[in-house]
Fold this sequence. Notes:
Blueprint: H1 16-23, E1 36-47, H2 71-83, E2 88-93, H3 102-110, H4 116-129, E3 133-137, H5 143-150, E4 155-157, H6 177-190, E5 194-200, H7 206-223, E6 226-233, H8 247-260, E7 266-268, E8 286-290, H9 307-317, E9 321-323, H10 329-333, H11 339-346, H12 350-365
Parallel strand pairs: 1-2, 1-8, 1-9, 2-3, 3-4, 4-5, 5-6, 6-7
Helix pairs in contact: 1-7, 2-4, 4-5, 5-6, 6-7, 7-8
Amino acid sequence: xxxxxxxxxxxxxxxxxxxxxxxxxxxxxxxxxxxxxxxxxxxxxxxxxxxxxxxxxxxxxxxxxxxxxxxxxxxxxxxxxxxxxxxxxxxxxxxxxxxxxxxxxxxxxxxxxxxxxxxxxxxxxxxxxxxxxxxxxxxxxxxxxxxxxxxxxxxxxxxxxxxxxxxxxxxxxxxxxxxxxxxxxxxxxxxxxxxxxxxxxxxxxxxxxxxxxxxxxxxxxxxxxxxxxxxxxxxxxxxxxxxxxxxxxxxxxxxxxxxxxxxxxxxxxxxxxxxxxxxxxxxxxxxxxxxxxxxxxxxxxxxxxxxxxxxxxxxxxxxxxxxxxxxxxxxxxxxxxxxxxxxxxxxxxxxxxxxxxxxxxxxxxxxx
Length: 368
């Protein structure tokens, strides 16, 4: 049983038999995908403020040091991304900044915004104006918060990370699995195509990994909204010196993800953090979002691979590499998109042409 919290009644019952079956899965039990996909994006760290203080995270800055991207910087970054052929504006920020971040809240007020979600909505408008499809990853969200920005996003996401309490989340402002699961539920109830995933190596055990993957499956079975699941290893950085999972661990947990999830849900590994070439036979079919314009602001020490490197991964696996949009084709085809996102894709503009050409490419190659 995965507990909820006082605020979120989100308990999920994962049968022990299901966990045990998933724990028996090994890489040889799954098949390699017939194609690999990726998305070309720009990374926009809307703010580095975060209410949490996870010990493996270098993204957040403490009060007094956290920053906000200003509207001009957002517009210029999106414009450079569109010029480079990108389709996705990936907006990240730490979970809803708490009251300690007085300077962040003062700056938002000075710009005329009541909250970070008000500002995110404006940022998404800018991205659409500049020819990119927004994909926002604002962490835990209430229903009202997500509903306020969902119509201006092609897709959204949050990493579940794990369903267990781990010391790496510890301290007075710790993440709670119930809150994360509630965000997945809210996305399902609102009909938002959604990305989530697990973080491997932060203190969870194999049972926790299986349970986390099955909890994601349970959410998808309820709502059908999970488009991809990321299997991401924790990596060494200035705040985390406790090591990263080895290749055998990554191969096994990736195979477990493929076995746990419906075929339509993609399994992704981030190619700047995980040994993608060594995982293609474990069921991955996506290499995530990579940027020709911006760094990975969450893991700045780990550079994005060039497109040629992704091509080399696909060639080594003897499968085609296909570009995709930040929202997967089936959600476009099955009417999941909001009116503003549909309008952006159908627009008689260079951006609309670019979006449609990628969709047509995916259809012709058979990629999901």
